[in-house]
Design brief:
Bound molecules: S-adenosylmethionine
Distance between the termini: 27 Å
Shape: globular
CATH architecture: 3-Layer(aba) Sandwich
CATH class: Alpha Beta
Number of helices: 9
CATH superfamily: Vaccinia Virus protein VP39
Length: 256
Amino acid sequence: MLFNDGGAYETSMGTWSRLVGDVFIDWLQVARDLKWLDVGCGNGAFSGLISNSCFPKQVVAIDPSSEQIDFARTRSDATDVNFRVGNAMSIEEDDNTFDLAVMALVIFFVPDPPKGVSEMVRVVKKGGLVTSYTWDTLNKGSPSSLITGHLIDMGFKPDSLPNPQVSEMAALNKLWTEAGIIDLKSDVITVERRFRDVDEYWDISCLFPNIQKIVPNLTPDHVIDLKTRIEEDLTVGDDGMLYQTAKANAIMGTVT
Ligand SMILES: C[S@@+](CC[C@H](N)C(=O)[O-])C[C@H]1O[C@@H](n2cnc3c(N)ncnc32)[C@H](O)[C@@H]1O
């Protein structure tokens, strides 16, 4: 098991993504000067990590959302990344182009995960890597699982992911094996984050897209009830802060 305790105290929503991304990059241990494809780059947080930690030769990063790509292009930590609108289901790149393709917290959003993996295999050179990490949502590993669990108990119906089943380790190994990828390595990444109090926890966590949609339907009493439930579940540290852990499953393998 790989572990990151969060280091410095931070507040932004992308912190979860960066905590897990840092551990994942250490785990990958890849060479310098590689051509990377970041599939489902979103706002470019993970692309920035590649750019700053992996000494890449080139990074192409794609996402179907033009708004996210527009934002990513403004990042000061990813100025050398080539951000483009694109879809995992049909990657607009030639065969055998990249040394490595990665999906960071993405595969459970892809409508047809085997197709998405086969597209990464197609654009990666023989001997290159196809890799992914994803919150273990089915086993309550996602940072949003705590709130969504309580919302469901309170009678709300938060949106679920299109393909949550592919977040489990066994499903990832099956997907990679069936795509003909060899020399598989997988691991669980555990990250821990701390919050000043339950109000800060709520302010950050209600920004998850599936929770954000429900917030307008919550009365002040609902929010008080929710915060009470959440506070009971979070661990209080010796420093008096509230701690939450999340778990992601990571996999990598070689294209033949
Ligand atoms: C949780 S975000 C992850 C963003 C980024 N990779 C990170 O780690 O911070 C999931 C991203 O998957 C993208 N996504 C959803 N469906 C996709 C698809 N079919 N192909 C590529 N990306 C997709 C979304 O637009 C969103 O930006």
